[in-house]
């Protein structure tokens, strides 16, 4: 009996262990939401963040959230809904069990889509995956990285950073993250050519008289 009792306690302990992790992640994303509201950005799906959940008895793959996706676009005029055809979006995503990384991570950045259909086709196939996006093969990036858009016809450009989720553990860290990603989002919205410098951060190639990003 002791073996089965130990197993039973271990199962319960596993769920009890997850509860504060999910709670802390919800608080983190609430701070993100407040920062985006101040920047006049809104989430395209409201509070929804997961697309493979299941309440069916045979849908065990979807009983627990493996990721949380937050995608933001400019705030629409009063009475209007967020624009799903928006080509430039800001994203903040948490992956609890990424396939090629040994710990939960937060991935944040901005992307620009080529197609008039908007970002959803690319997002569904690439980012809304419990294994994590294809480029997620390390638990941190020390600088802005660029996804190779040559491999993805729908993608014009995408800048992102990765951090271990456990390192984003206080308000200051979350607010710093938000400030960085909002800046990149504004640069991606600037209709100018973007290249990469030696440190991997975006450099804008502006025509004479072009405004600074975000102005």
Keywords:
215 residues; two-stranded antiparallel sheet; single chain; six-stranded antiparallel beta sheet; alpha+beta; disordered C terminus; globular
Task: Offer a concise description of the structure.
The protein is α+β, with helices and mostly antiparallel strands.
Overall shape: it is: globular
Question: Average pLDDT across residues?
Answer: 85
Which range best describes the helical content: under 10%, 10-25%, 25-40%, 40-55%, 55-70% or over 70%? 25-40%
The domain count comes to 1
Radius of gyration: 19 Å
Question: What pattern of helices and strands is seen along the backbone?
Answer: HEEEEHEEHEE
Instruction: Summarize the biggest pleated sheet.
Output: 6 strands, antiparallel
Overall number of strands: 8
How large is the count of helical segments?
3
Task: Report how far the terminal alpha carbons are from each other.
Answer: 68 Å
- Regions with little confidence, pLDDT below 50 for 5+ residues: 192-199, 203-215
User: What share of residues are in beta strands?
Assistant: 15-25%
**What structural category arises from helix and sheet content?**
alpha+beta
Strand order of the largest sheet: 1-2-3-4-6-5
Q: What are the SSEs and their pairings?
A:
Layout: H1 2-38, E1 41-43, E2 67-74, E3 88-95, E4 105-113, H2 120-126, E5 145-146, E6 155-164, H3 171-189, E7 193-196, E8 202-205
Antiparallel strand pairs: 1-2, 2-3, 3-4, 4-6, 5-6, 7-8
Helix pairs in contact: 1-3
Please describe what this structure looks like:
The chain is an alpha+beta fold. Helix 1 packs across helix 3. The strands form 2 sheets. It has a 6-stranded antiparallel β-sheet with strand order 1-2-3-4-6-5, covered by helices on one side. The protein is built from 3 helices and 8 strands.
